[in-house]
Design brief:
Helix content is 37%, strand content 22%. Helix 2 (37-45) packs parallel to helix 3 (65-73). It has a single domain, classed as 3-Layer(aba) Sandwich (Rossmann fold), CATH 3.40.50. It has helices spanning 13-25, 37-45, 65-73, 105-117; strands at 5-9, 29-34, 52-55, 58-59, 62-63, 78-82, 98-100. Helix 1 (13-25) links the parallel strand 1 and strand 2. It has 4 helices and 7 strands. With 120 residues, it is α/β, with parallel strands linked by helices. A 5-stranded parallel β-sheet has the order 2-1-3-6-7, sandwiched between helices. It is globular and about 30 Å long.
């Protein structure tokens, strides 16, 4: 089975490194990371193959909504990883899972597995 390709968008460098390490330890392929809205949209414009994305809800004051819209339109599931929980989530993302910060490795692993297991 091929490792699932994950894209990560997180504006906090320490949290980004932590997420990158965790997804690699869990056996996923890390296809890229971005720390800002513009950087993420530029990366997505290159057309990488992505199976799942982890998105911080707030990127230094910019919502990650355009990134989520782009990914969801392409059929890529999104896991919002945020200290805001569902409070900051736009209504159109009500079906997207949210992992509340702070989280631990097991909660992240369980969320990723649940999302990937429900994909058809």
């Amino acid at each position: 089975m091929t490792a699932k390709r994950i894209f990560i968008v997180e504006d906090e460098a320490i949290l980004l490194c932590d997420l990158e390490d965790i997804v690699l330890q869990l056996g996923f392929e890390h296809v890229g990371s971005s720390t800002s809205l513009n950087e993420a949209m530029g990366f997505l414009a290159t057309g990488p193959e992505i199976d799942l994305a982890l998105l911080d809800l707030n990127l230094n004051g910019d919502p990650s909504d355009p990134i989520a819209d782009h990914l969801l339109a392409a059929g890529v599931p999104v896991l919002f990883v945020s200290g805001y929980g569902r409070r900051g989530l736009a209504d159109r993302f009500a079906d997207c899972p949210v992992l509340q910060k702070p989280y631990d490795d097991q909660k992240l692993a369980a969320a990723l597995e649940l999302i990937l297991s429900t994909r058809t």
